[in-house]
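User: Can you fold this complex?
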Amino acid sequence: MGRSVRSVIAVVCALIALPAYAVAQDAVTITGRVASAEGGAPLGTASVTVEGLGSVTLTRDDGRYSLVVPAARAHGQQATITARLIGYKAKAATITLAGNVTQDFALDVNPLRLGEIIVTGAGTTSSIEKLGTAVSTVDSSLITRSHENNIVEALAGKTPGVQVNSQSGDPGSSAYIRIRGIKSLSGDAQPLFVVDGVPIDNSVMTAEDPTAGVAAPNRAADINPNDIETVTILKGAAAAAIYGARASDGVVIITTKSGHAGGTHYSLGSNYSFDKVNRKVPLQTTYAQGSHGVNAVCANPGCRLTSGSYGDLIAAGTPTYNHFDEIFETGHNSDNTLSASGGNDKTVFYLSAGYTNQQGVILGPNDTYKRTTVRLKASHHLFDRLTVGGNISYVDGRGQFVQKGSNTSGLLLGAMRTSPNFNNFPYLDTATQTQRSYRYPQPVLFDNLSGRGYDNPLFVIFGNLNTAETNRAYGNVNLNYDATDWLKLDYTLGADYYSNQLLDAQAQSSSSFASGQVFRTDGNNLQIDHNLTATLSHTFSPNFSGTFTLGQNLNARRFRETDVNGQNLVAATPFNLQNTTAWIPTEFKSLVHSESYFGQATADIYNQLYLTAALRNDGFSTFGESNPRAWYPKASAAWTFTNLLGKTDQRGAFSFGKLRAAYGETGKEPGVYATNTVLIPGGFFGSGFGDFLNATQQGGGGLFSSGALGNPNIKPEREKEFEGGADLGFLDQKVDLSLTYYKNKSTDVILPLPIPLSSGYATQLKNGATLQNKGYEVAMNVRPITRPNFSWDLGVNWAKNTTTVTGLSGAEFVSNVAQFGGTFSGAAGAATLGNDIGLRGQDFVRCGRGVVVDGVDIDATSCVGAAKNALYIDASGFPVFDPTDRVISDPDPHWTGSIRTSFHISKFQISALVDHKQGGDIWNGTRGALYNFGIHKDTDIRGGTFTFGKDYPYLSGPVAGPGAGTPVVIDQSWFQGDGSGFVGPSAEFVENGTYTKLREISVAYTFDGKWVPNLIGLTSIDLRVAGRNLATWTKYKGIDPETNLAGAAFAVQGIDYFNNPQTRSIVISVGLNR
Amino acid sequence: MKMQLKGAICAAALVVVAAGCNNFLKGGDLTKDPNNPLNATPKQLFSSVQSNLWIQQTSDLARLTSMWMQQVVGVARQAYGTYTFTGVTESSFDAEFARAYQGGGILDLRKIDSTTQVLGDSIFLGISKVTEAWLISVNADIWGDIPYSQADSFFVYPQPVLDPQQTVYDMVETRLSEAIAELQSGIGSGPKGADLVYGGDPDKWIELAHTLKARVWLHQAEKLGTPAYASALVEAAQGISSNDGDYVANFSGSQAGESNPWWQFLDANGTTGRNGDIVATNSFLYDLMSSTNDPRFPDYFQPGSVDTYDFSPFRENPTYPQPFVTYNENLLIQAEAQLQTGATGAALTSLNTERAAWALLLAPTKAWHRAYTLAPAGSATLSAIMTEKYIVLFQNIESWNDYKRTCIPALTPVAGGVNGVIPGRLLYPVGERQTNTNIPAVSAQPPRNWNDPNACSDS
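Assistant: Here's the predicted assembly.
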């Protein structure tokens, strides 16, 4: 390929540029100590650099460092030596490189992290102070402290405007991340992930429909969080424009840990956790299996019993079972990372190995995820001005899972429907050794091929097999060439490859497929990225300097997936394809290339006004022929106005002030092959009622045109965003505050637009929708106490985003767009004009909606004087089902916030993170279904007399109508009728998902007394006890409101249908450092 | 300085090499979907068209007309709603409306046309045209004025206009005449074995085309009167001349998707879970055949049969060869046309030839009935002819057209019908109305089509 040729040329170029070798002198040793200016506490892990010579080291925990400048480079010249640490202001000193030098530093706290350099993307960096957009960086200590295996979940509550939602507590389940709202109507609407300058894949691959099947990780979870140095999040188009047509949902830039010159540093971090289900679904244990008060009794083997628990009261003394509790136990996660890092003035390295073994909370051995990671990152000064570097990560992830969700073979679906008087143990009938369940308690002999209604949850756990195996390698090689003082070249060639092998198997007698079936998925993904930048910098005068960057990016993404559904197991096991009798294969592959050029110019004026302008030009193979390329501009300004006021020392009541404003555009490429109109092989023609005819009859090989008309003119979606804000410091920077407002308009949003059926097609993909997102973000940090042995700091984040669908090309709503909303009867993900993106379904008849009941316009009659949306009660005293399809739920929160605090008391460190989500609806389909089966604790009120609008506890709010105030008997027919989630309207079970969560709380102690090195040869030992999700405060009537049925696979969140629960944990961690 | 220059040159070289790949964004798997075929042979398209035609004739529309014609009874779920009319809305039949136009319909037939024209395969072209005429005539029968002249040309006509029903029928007649001319030329090889009904035999397709032409003339007879009957008679005389020419869908039954859709809906356990939604018990047809001791009763019904819904396992079978257009229908078209043009004697001969044909043993793949000896009819009244046709066209969507024209048999609309009668058309589907500005609002749509001005009053 051309790409490898290019990299060879790069190396050759490097060799041509060989410099002459300098003449040797004596080596110079520089030693010293870095401490905090406030209180004088020693600062570990600070970097000390001799500028221009590339000599870098890190301080030890006692703040001391030692650095050797080799004789070849030291010839008595003056040099600048700088000490840097995140959260502190860098401090420089001038030394003479001769003999032995001692240089101590006292660093000032740097609340707004002014002057720190962060990666802003595609080979560009910037000092935070000069950024015209809001900055969100999360550093390694915060990530480590979260004790999450999944880096995405570790970002929860860390920065405003970034919303994280975890699928469930299952090992290896996904976490969904959304930045500043949904901006598209297709795909999963998650940001681009970039590791050390190279984009990586963060998709979710499942063997079955993601609403059923098993949990699967988002692929960014392959990263070992312990290897991460910082995460920078480019939230909006103004920041992310440099990534062009892949950045519409923002960019998460991950920088991994590097080695530093000096002694070799070893560290071993070990965590062990105790995990428990954090919230349960309340189940009744009062009434037996049966119907209308009559118990279901199994008269003969082979009996089939009713699914409901509307029998008689369970007699005192009869054992009952809690079918939720009995399938969970304490889970454990052990996580170990060993790393070694160090190097000398020419070569530095970071090497780590990590092993995470998570045993989930579901009973038995089939709920595990194990991840092994190995990482090497190294760089070497080939010559004075040329550095070569490389890094590679290898990941082996493998897990065993339990079926979940909307699935008659799902764990909680069967478990929670089981009547309280049925003992699920043993799950195999002793006489026949086949599955027994509450609906089929006594299987007849040899009946292993009929469904059980719903599966015995223990059979789901122990009888099935669901596995995943992932092998992944990603990394890059890079060259940095400081051609001159004013020209710098950077080249990165990166790759990300993984293969994923999935097996989902449902054993014989499974209710979802009684003859047994196997789903095999083999997928692999390869991404290669080439990025070349040249940066020119020039200082025109002390008051005016600037940089100019030019870059080229080439990217190739290749994806392959083969799925085979093998049906009808011959023998009970093994679960493989040759043991089945019929196969349904599906293959998919895709290839996408992009070729982009970008330029960025910056200007620093009077050290207070910083201007940036950039332009990217993208060509993607996915763009339509008439729109082969697209431009993405951005411009921003940052003005440190306190500098103008002469306040450059950041002291005083109002110590710092910066205003920023930015505008930028990003895009989202069309889905692959959207320009094609294809013929469908292996298709069929069907009615809406299950009968169908294959296009191929009697081996004839039929092909027909797809109903989806391709669009040869499709172009990328476009996001235009304005962002403005201020970063302010007060009271000698003891208080800092960042405020941001943004407004984002998405245009040319792609949607499958319905076209006349008489055209022969059903839809055509078009750039036809517009969306708007706007919001505010606030971050505030306070450091009230900063004494040497006692400090306290407090951080508050708050964000609010509003998404509005502003145009759908004339359609009122668009639902169930591919990989977007999921298909769920009665609660379908949809974009509705004038609304946020949410769920559509039905509701009860309510006032003020223009509903006509039995020919009577209720708004003109019964509803006169009633509150808007008052529940209409007909003469019988019951509410009435309204079949109109309407918006029923908005899963997006009204606002989110978090409070983080930490105390340092001597060598103790105590920290906590409280996370809050206000609003954000969840459709509690679980509760709706459990009413139907008479299992939910709420159904204990059966037989009682209640009045809607007064004392019926599960539908609140005002009522109107002829039957308002009429008491009615609430019994089985209500709970299996309009009062259930099966028959009644789905809106009845939409709940407010507000929660407050104690995400993290930890106490840590560092042992670094003399006995540590003397006794065991270590420099320090960190000990921490932490709680993860210890408390969740919510009114949500189900499992943890942080949940989603399909996890990160779909953009529309907020669906709970027998989802597996979340967990809370106690984590003990030990860190050994040397 | 020299070194710096070298560096700059190399950097430039890198950019040039990369940009030199002018095929980087185009070609191969980059722009062409590698997962699905982008081209198909006429035979591959024809196989799909055939399946699409078969499902048009045996699925939702056939269930609808059989229920409204009271040959079967909808007792549960959506079928009950259809049977009692309340469940039929503008969103009920989008898929059925689309069938004639979509892939597997005219969209793909036009691809067959252009390829076979290039190849000079007149037989294949003729067969394609017959199929197109048949598919679109069904839409004209049900929805009246429909898009046709501008249909299936999205880039030219993104919003196809409605052609008046009579114009569509005229175009259908023209299309069938063209088809007959192509087929008569005898040039080309045709679909051969891909045609699972006639094996590509042009003579059989010519006969079918004539019978379809006769059908379409009959559909206009209420409006056009005697000339339409006369035209129907001319065509039917050249129509299907023996049971060997019957158009009978033959299902292998080897898997669900190759099984008779009536069976899939009525009987298939587990596949659809719809068994019991439609039953035969005491339908008008059931009672009629039972009360007249019609010998054919066991082919249709079997009280207390295994499925308990009183259908006969002979027809409710995965491999039952479903008749769409038959020699028997052609004879009854002749009988009706002869009667209406005053040839009473010829009409009786046609009727009794049809009744006698029931004694014939049919080839196994076309055995849509078993052999029964029927007594000859004494006289050829319209009632006798149309009642016989009502029986013959069990489960056939053509029976609705016969009823709309002749009001025979005298059905009492279930649950009072819609405004007292059995509806004469369906509403344009919502999927078409919302996307095509030429479709009138529900309230502005006519209750009946042009060819059917008079409703059958309650008997």
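Confidence is low (pLDDT under 50) at residues 1-20 of chain B. The two ends of chain B are 107 Å apart (CA to CA).
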